[in-house]
Amino acid sequence: MKFVQALQQSRPAIAVPISASDGQSFLQQVDLIGQNSAVQVVEWRVDTSAALSDDAIQQMAERLHQAGKLLLMTLRTQAEGGAFQGDAQAYQCEYTRLLNLIAPEALDIEASVPETIRESCVQLAHDHQLAVVASAHDFHHTPSLADAKSQLRAQSTWADVVKLACMPQTPQDTLNLLALSAWARKTLKQPAIVIGMGQLGQLTRVASGAFAPGLTFATLGHASAPGQLSVNLIHELQEELF
Hints:
- The protein is 40% helix and 19% strand.
- By secondary structure, it is α/β, with parallel strands linked by helices.
């Protein structure tokens, strides 16, 4: 899968999230992304696009593909920091509907979704030949290194890419996340996205070498998560470090 291969390189792939509730704002962001060669992945936060018509979504998806970037489709629930308010069954139904309109390379599936729904979503993704990104978010604290390893191991049993984003409260939390990223790169078969949110976590977004995540999220404008850095800054640091 192209998406997985892009996350298995020596430097983290750079992804830009798009969170837009109207077509004009969305297309402006796509144009900026298309002009920036450092961006490899676009994460479309479809939970912010509920007001758009099916025709508008299809047109926007076409513009994204014209930009030549890999597309990660994400329906982020309120429990994980997003805007989607439906229950687990509605989560599955919305992904089923959107995959008839959008052709991404990868699908984000939250690890907290009930197992039966999760299995159906994974099957749905693989039926469309998409990579599955398992994701978990904690906006209040960071688990112990042992617990974080357990979370990624559990995700690796059903996903093609594993992801854990946490809010460090101490410098030690950030060091634990860097250690987790190094452990995952050495131990797991799947690429791992390990993110520390907020100011304390910014070091994880620019980590290199043995500590590098498979993917780092950056911004060309409005940040979709606390602590995101600009694409240009991350790219400049990568050029220096790699």
